[in-house]
Amino acid sequence: MAGAAGLLAAGCARTADRPLQLWAMSYEGDYAPLLMPAFAQATGIAVEVQSLPWTASHEKLLTAFAGDAMPDVLMLPSEWVGEFAMIGALAPVPDPRLLAGLFEGTRAAGRYRGRDYAVPWSVAPQAQFYRRDLLAAAGFGRPPPAWAEWRAMGRALRRRRPDEWVFLMPLNWWDALFTFAGQTGAAMLRDRDTRGDFRSPAFGAALAFYASLYAEKLAPAMLSTELQDPFAAFAQGSFAIYPRSPAMLLDLKRRRAEIADNAWGVVRMPGPNGPGPASGISASLCVAAGTRRPDQAWALMRYLTDAPAELRFQHLIGSLPARRAAWTAPQMQAPVLRPFLDQMAQPARMPGVVEWERIRIEVQLVAERMVRGELSLPAAQAMMDRRADAILAKRRALLDTGLVA
Amino acid sequence: MTRQERAAWLFVAPVLAIILLVLVLPALLALALAVTDYSIYALADLSALRFIGLGNFTDLFGTPLFWRALGNTALFALFGVPMAIGSSLAAALLLDEATVRWKPLWRVVLFAPYVTSVVAAAVVWQFLLNTRFGLLNYGLGLIGIGPVDWLGNPRASIPAILIFVTWKIFGYNMIVFSAALSAVPHDLMEAARLDGASRWERFRHVTLPAIGPTLLLAAVMSVAGFVQLFAEPYVMTMGGPSQSTVTVLYFMFDEGFKWWNLGQASAVALILFAIILLLTVVQTRIGRRYEWL
Amino acid sequence: MAVIMNRRLLRTIVSNALVASIAGLTLVPLVWMVTVSFMPRGESSHFPPPFWPSRWSWENYHELLVRRLIDGAWFDYRIMPALWNSLGIALAATVLGLLLTVPAGYAFAKLRFTGRERLLRLLIAALVVPTQVAMLPLFLAFKELGLVNSYAGVILPGLAAIFAILFVRQTVLGIPDEMIDAARLDGAGEVRIFVSIVLPLLMPITVTLAVFLFLASWNDFLWPLIVLSDQHRYTLPVAVAAIAREHAGDGELMMAAAVVTTVPVLLLFLALQRYYVSGLLGGSIKG
Question: From the list B37, B47, B149, which residue is nearest A394 (CB)?
């Protein structure tokens, strides 16, 4: 037991001289260390970055909060900010200047009960990357902007190359379905966000369109875990269309040897009658409520969300700055960024409830079962509503008692 | 108190205290937690915590995914236990053959997968089971069986994980059975042989009764093991495809630590406990009936 | 006579060939894991799947294990710290586990004290309680005690090793009472009897138990996954699972990670397999 106690003591004693901790997911986490030397030079503050896997980050952050092991600064997808603000894990933004000059709509997701808890960092709307060569061979200069023609293009491509797929949309990624839903204007929740609204005609239209792409064998009923390397599949021409966030730009840069620069292009996602609001994962930065060095944490926050660092990051990983001022820089005038900029002007509105992340995953799971032929469209919609209602039960109860606004 | 008694308490008290603190008390607390609606809202503010009686259980019984997790777990146990026990017994019987040489070597080799970490082995098998580049499909292709989408087809995912788990654990029970087989009375076996009993008859009437208790114990432990499957789907499939590999424990982990519904998750844990208890009792009863115990 | 000899020979060949091929199949995943880990990146994603690297390359291990400086910033999978964490945690769990359970197992077998039989029955009953039932309340308790995300928090639940107590007790029951009584008549204290008479006799099964405890701690996954949130504290399985979820495409890198996780325990097992396997065999088979 003495040994265990010793270990425990050793564990607690080291926090004081540790570098400032920054946790981020995916490429942001992998590449953020590259931004740190400049910060350390300017301020003398050492920063250590930990990269979390996307699929395990929600539970990691919650246990870190419960275990009083939060980092000083953390990245959160914008949809999670409300949830973490509610449990008291985040510090409110003390300086309004941090929130000045942002793209419309990016700030709203970081608000909880009238206070701001997050500074938008990068914006990642979804767009579609396409293979110029494959489309040209089928007589298309670029993917058509409306659903019906887009799907017709898919059929044409499939006819020309019956052994290959057209759309790379793994069944466990919710982006595509929610992009389509955003474009139809489906609200998805109703009654002050206490019940699912997936039986609405708007959502039904999006779901039907989504499922039809699999039913017509234009997209494979596969999970991302099976596609060992989606990028390679796109580069090798197994797929002609790959809806993705700007992070794809990094892959295209890193793996230039696999696909030539003139072999691909990027345009906005198609909508029912042309492009509309699309969803995407926008990353925000937050300072943990329990940080022992708030001044240094906010200094890091200011540095990371300022235009120069955002531009450096854009150059590194393709993420798009949330700050308007950054967009006047020459590097932002590249044509490949144009579709993303246009899309940013039209963000899809997602419900701002703490249960949203879970609902979205449940809805995608039901959609997967429908795609696999286990459920009809109405049955799938009904099941989505049932699952959403069950997840929101606690929220309904708390709304009645006034504990939740 | 005698000297002996004092020493005894000195020896047993520390470990009993730990068992009490990290196993018994928490297990009792789980009962208390299961009748509350402890959720992420309670993490924010304990005043949001309410007593809801059996609410978690009725909620669970109305949750399709819970039933699916139960069903998946049942499939894992139903096919996994015979597969694992059968292959262990087959290997042990083979190693028991008088003609087999280098037995210690084979024992070590066959046991090796058991000592590897589940996570690392699952990573390896994820690649072995790959549809296009996996060795397993390549091997099947050589004997004319078309590629199986092991981890992507909801019907193939459970068999895929079962193959992996069997590979991983059969060595353990093989050793246990080897020990039991070596205790099979030799004279009885010789007598049966002289009586002209066939190989199968000798196995059925001499070997099986002798190793019955060991077999039963192994079955009880295997059932408990398969009911507690977690790391395999966590690493290999994340519960997919189509939630076909979500097990009870996976469900509990997601419910409890991903979404922080600790009340609900505790109810799941208690149901898991009840299932294991029930299966143990049933298996013991069956064992008694056949006088193996 | 010749026919019988031939049949016997045939049986020898068939049974040995059968055992050898089963052993070979069992080893394929492990050997493949090692060979792929030495392949240049991307080589394993070809058909037919290559079993041997075209050239042996250390690049996967280099990427995995060495903290690299790129453009003035550190890139790190933190596998080496995880290796040390795993080693430290497993060693601590083993030593503490032995200190706690071996004396207790002895006491339950040979020392008379009130309530012994009842406690023993309770222990056997508690064996049925799956540890997962205790996990959720335990997490909340550890949260209050500040043990979440600490090494102690990882180790503590594993110390409630009831099976180990019963395992030791079973062996101690085989030690003749006369030996212990003789020492008592000579005036030796109970602790001294345990240390100088019983413990030497228990050495073989103590080694067996140590290997059991070490492996159980090294390979444990669910609880460390729950209780550790800071990557500096991750154990190897938790770290590897995190990388696997993010880098599922990098087959060769993942195989290197699997090698790093499994090889230490495989070596330990090979070194001590005589004790370990004989512990399982219960001493009934020699060699």
Answer: B37
